[in-house]
Amino acid sequence: MPLAPLTSDKLYRIAALNGLNDACKSTKHLTPLDEIVGQERAQHAVEFAMSIKEKGYNIYAIGRNGLGKRTMVMRYLNRHEPNGNSHTLYDWCYVSNFGDTRCPKVLKLPAGEGCSFKKDIENLMKRLVKAFPLAFDNELYYSRAEKLKAELATKQETTLKSLTKSAEERGVSVSITTQGDYQLVAMNGKEPHSEDSFAALSAEDQQLFENTINDLEVELRGIVRKLTEWEEQYSNKQQKLDENIAQEVVGHCIKDLQLKYKKVADVKAYLADMYTDILENIDIFLEENEEQVALAYASLDKKMPRRYQVNVLVHQLDERKFPIEVEESPSYHSIFGYIENATYKGTVFTDFSLIRAGSLHRANGGVLMMDAVKVLERPYVWDGLKRALRAQKLNLSSLEREVTLSGTISLEPEAIPLNVKIILFGDYQTYQLLQHYDPEFKELFRVTADFEDDMPRNDTSEEQYARFIASIVHDNDMLHCDRKAIARIIEYSSRQADDQNKLSLHSADIANLLRETNYVARASNATMIRSSHVEQAMLNQELRVSRLKDHVMQSFVTGTTLLDVHTHAVGQVNALSVISTSDYQFGAPSRITATIAYGSGEVFDIERSAELGGNIHSKGVMILSAYLASVFGKTAKIPLTTHLTFEQSYGGVDGDSASMAEVCAIISAFSGLPLRQDIAITGSMNQFGEAQPIGGVNQKIEGFFDVCGIKGRTAGQGVIIPESNVHNLMLRKDIVEAVSKGEFQIWAISHVSQAIEIFTGNAVGIEAEQGFYPSDTVFGLVQSKLNALRR
Question: Coiled-coil intervals in this record (predicted)?
């Protein structure tokens, strides 16, 4: 009994939308889906990783672009609080280390208090800048300072008067030179001795004066030492006075801050250190320091002492909001932060106030999401990321110093404790490379979120998909889709999945189609998206990318590509192939021919010999050779050599989907029976002749249907496909209509022998006990010819 073609209902699965309420007329009546449909496995992986606090449970999300990986993770994180209340968020600030300015200290403050603390310190500095001059510029301070100064002057004056009186009684004058030195001069009455008058004195008087002056010099040196001691005592008393006043000023101004932050240990310790440092550097507030002002402007900060600034590195706007950072350009500086440089009078300098945060700082306590390929492309980023995750600390080191190995002076800020989940998005190939070449990858990224490409199609999933469509419509403020438009988009998704029983999860494709459909609908002044708008958008999409297809089809119009779709021919069959570009694929038929000559049974693959055939195609030829040998060469070699080729193929051939077509061409050449040229075939086979499924079945059928339209359509034309590909059929509407009218046929076969029967119109034959086939069958005719050649 001949094999019946498929009925039209097998060629396309209509979306009945049985899962939707009959009252639902459009997406307006649907609740938008607040999650990515069909990715339960990946979502469970994310939930698991986010619930574990231990080190190393970071996530690698695997899947092709367009699956909505990032969208799913973002929606999950925004909808759920992954850490609950188990983890407290903090603000992080850098401040000066008064003991070692090269190693700035880090302050940990409760979330949201970093900027408040910075403002408090700024206000404190403003108060001190005003309070210090006032404290040292009033009558009380002046009177106390003058009293100390008067005490010193009185003691100095009394001592010097005593020395002067004693010297005068002994005939010596004490005076002070313009350089501030003391000078002892012998007196001649009331006038100093001149050289002549002194020389006129007796030797005894001269000696007496010299002894007196020597004694007075000894006494004077002792007095000078006392004066120096008294000045030091005065200086100490003056400094003590200044410190007492400064302590009163600083203590009064800072006490409110100490009380406010007494429960924050880091801030409490910092305020104590700052209190001591201010007392040691009062001159900063008393003197107009142009350099400090210039440096403040160089770093674009406010006019205040730089050493007391607070650099708020991370400020949590909401202590309850889980930090989620997406790093689009993961360079070393953008992830780990950096230290800026400023220039003052031609000199480059830096300090703690020029430290800038990276995305890891901002994501601390939350999640950082990045593209895996971009991370691996940028120098030093991957190593730095692993180092931070291993140590659970964020060290802000200068990349330039590490790269150049120079001794450039730079800062070494205190490390910040790191508690973050890293989510890398990438494809499977990148995942395999990391698994294979980086042994640390498994330890740091222990959770794999594997995103599905498709999902089962049933009434429930169609209802979910309709809600997913509604969510895209709502999020992008589009026109609403009516029920038929929803059904057509679901059918499009099934076509994208190449399966009647599955729906594609490439959300980007659906979103793009909806955007273009919305444009078409608005351009036609429609108030709602209808199925006709969806069809037009799909046609527009195809028109933009189908230039190569039009070029190939034109070759059939002009006759450049030889193809017969009407007659019969020996050793010639129409096979189907798929041609792909980066964003489009289409089917096109090609002619396979087989010629025979007396030989040793070898199947000579011309494509392979010309180095145009790929490995998979060569494997297919070897398999069909094994099948032919198992059928006709059990007792003796096949005495024919077969030459097999794709006609007019110049760009290379690969894949085994033509192996059944090649067998049919060889059997035709062996038997001399002509094959129908109005039928094309696609499908691979195993060594037992069983048909195996292939890819691109829809495009292949549509390609042959279009060529038949070009060459002239007849009622007998059709395509043979493997039975296991029937569930992949989601054909164009015009082909379904042609099949329903009997103008085109599609046969689904399970064995290559069924294809031979369709092509020749004769039975293949069943092997008898002795290995012979009936003489009136195709295999019987082949066997008799081979036996004749053997004799």
Answer: 213-247
pLDDT digits (tens, 9 = 90+) for 279-307: 887 777 766 555 554 554 444 344 457 78
| Two structure tokens written together for 765 | 């034959």
The amino acid that residue 406 corresponds to is: S
Q: What is the pLDDT of residue 459?
A: 92
Outline which parts of the chain fall under CATH 3.30.230.10: 561-790
Concerning whether 618 is annotated as a catalytic residue, the answer is: no
Catalytic residue among 69, 421, 700, 711: 700
CA nearest 341: which of 354, 356, 357, 331?
354
Question: 60-105, pLDDT tens digit by residue?
Answer: 999 888 777 888 888 888 776 655 545 678 899 999 888 888 889 9
Backbone angles phi, psi at 129, to 5 degrees: -60, -35
**Closest by alpha carbon to 594, among 675, 508, 522?**
675
Instruction: Tally Cβ neighbours within 10 Å of residue 409.
Output: 11
143 catalytic per annotation: no
User: Is residue 323 scored above 70 in pLDDT?
Assistant: yes
Select from 283, 284, 270, 278 the least CA-distant residue to 247. Answer: 278
Q: Which of 359, 531, 657, 684 is catalytic?
A: 657
Instruction: Report the distance separating Cα 386 and Cα 441, nearest Å.
Output: 8
- 3-state SS, one letter per residue, for 226-247: HHHHHHHHHHHHHHHHHHHHHH
Q: Give the global pTM.
A: 0.79
Which of 147-151, 333-337, 755-759 is predicted with the least confidence, judged by mean pLDDT?
147-151
Name the amino acid, one letter, at 761: G
For residue 241, pLDDT beyond 90: no
Question: In CATH, which of 3.90.76.10, 1.10.8.60, 3.40.50.300, 3.40.50.720 is domain 16-35+454-554?
Answer: 1.10.8.60
Give the pLDDT of residue 168: 65
Q: Could you tell me if 77 and 325 are in contact, meaning their C-beta atoms sit under 8 angstroms apart?
A: no
Q: What is the DSSP string of 495-512?
A: HHTT-TTEEE--HHHHHH
Beta bridge mates, 107: 93
CA 219 to chain centre: 85
